[in-house]
Amino acid sequence: MSNRRFEMYEYHQALVRMRLGESDRQIAKTGLMGRRKLAQVRETAEKQGWLVAEVSLPSDATLALFFSGRASKQPSTSSIIPYQDEVRAWVKQGIAGCTIHQALIRKYGFTGAYSSVRRFVAKIKQTPAKATVMLDFAPGEAVQVDFGAGPVITDAFTGEVIKTHFFVMTLAWSRHQYAEIVRDQKIETWLGCHRRAFEFFGGVPARVIIDNPKCAITKACYHDPEVQRSYEAFAEEYGFLISPCPPREPQKKGRVESGVKFIKINFLPTRTFRSLHDANAQLLEWVMGYAGNRTHGTTKTQPLALFAETEKHILRPLPDVPPELAVWAKVKLHGNCHVEFRRCYYSAPYRLAHQILWLRATEKTVQIFHDNELIAIHSRRLKPGSKATVQEHLPPEAQAYIMHDPQWCLLQSEKVGQACREFIDALFAHKVLDNLRAAQGTLQLKKKYGAKRLEDACRRALDHHDPRYNTVKRILEKGLDVLPRPVFHEEVKDIYRGKSKYCRELRGILQ
Known about the structure:
alpha+beta; Nucleotidyltransferase, domain 5; 20 helices; 42% helix
C-alpha cells in the first residue's frame, strides 16, 4: 500500500478521523490508509495545527502542497540550457536528436548524455492537448460521407478477386446510415453512390460534409477548395451544399468515421461473400437490422427510429426526374486527333490538336467541348483500347487516304481508260509493296494533265513494263506521252517477254 497514490479527499477523511480522536490503528482497519502513511499524515497535521478543533480543515489545494510530492521536488536544470537557442533552431529545421547530440560534442565539447538531448527535444516538440467541441446538427441539416477499405472478395462464379471499398453516408442527426461496397473510388462511382443513398433515405440533406477525395475535390484548401466539376454539377441538380473538411482534419466528420469503423468491427468479422452483389445484400440487411435498431452510444436512441419518426420527413424532396450522371474531365487532343478517356479514344477536329478540351461522359455518350462549344459527340466506348472516329475530324490528307481505298482507285481508273485500269491493276499486283498511295497519286495527276494524257502516259509505262508512279509522272512532265508508241516486230515481240529497260532498241536488233 506504500506505493499507492492517494487522492486529496482521502487525506481529508484521515484528518477528520484524527480530529475525532481515532488512532492510526483504528483508521488503518477501515482500509483508508496504512499505519505508516497515517503516521506521516499525523506528523504533518500536528506541525500545521490541523488537528485543533477550532482550526478549519485545509483545502484540497493546500493538502496537495504537502502530500502530492510536488513541493519536495526541486526543479532540475538541463545541461542543454547553455545551448538551447541553437538546439531550438536545429529542431525547427527537422534535425534529428542524435545528430544534435553529435554536433554539440563536436562544437562545444558537450559531455552530457544523449538522453538529456532527447528529453530536451521532446519538451520542445511537446504540444498542448487540443480540446474538441461536439457539433450539433438539426434534423435533415447534414450528412457525412467517407470511403473506407473494404474486404477482398473472391467471386464464387467467375473466380475474380475483387479489392473493394466501403462507401458510407451517415445522417448527422439521427445517425442512420447508407453503406455500399464498391470496386473503386472513381468519380462515376462517387456520384452513383450519392444517388443511391439519397434514394435510400428518400430525400436530400441541406449539406454534404466530406473529406477531400480526388473524386470530389481537385484542390484541397482551408479557405478556397476547388470542387470537381462533375460533383459541382451533381450538387446543383440535387440542391445540396458541399462542405469539405479542412485539409488534414478528418475528425470534423467524426460521425461517418465512427460509422466506417463500426461496419468494419461489427459487420465484416465471421462473414463470407460469394460475390459483390451478395456482399451488398448482406450489408443492406445488416444496416436495416442490427445497425439501425441498436441503441446508439451518443443519442441513446435507435438510429432507424429517429430517422423514421423525424428526419425522414424533413429531408428535401428528390428531383422529379433523376439527373443524368455525367463525368467532366479535362483532356488533351493528341496529334492523332483523338483524346483518351477511361482507356478509350474519341476523335475531335484536327485543327485543335495539342489543345486542352473538356469532355463530358455519361453512361451512353461522350461529348467534347472547346470554349463551351460542342465540337464532337460519340457513343460511349467501354472496352479498353476501343476507338470512336469521325472521318471529318481527320486532316484532309488522312481523309483522302482512308476514303480512297483500292476499290475507289480501280473505279476511278476505269473512268480514265483501259490503260489506266491496267496500270492500277499492275500496282496492286506487286508482291511486296502496298501501292495504295502510288495509285492515289497516279489518279491525282488527272487534275493537272487531264484524262487523255494520263491514259497515254499509263500506256507508255506499260509498254516499257515499268508500272510505277514516278515513271508516269516523268512521262507527263517531259511530254513523252505525245510521242508515237514504239513499233515492235511481231515475231520478236512474241518471243521476248522480259523488260527492255537495260536492252538495246529492238529496232536496231532487227536491222
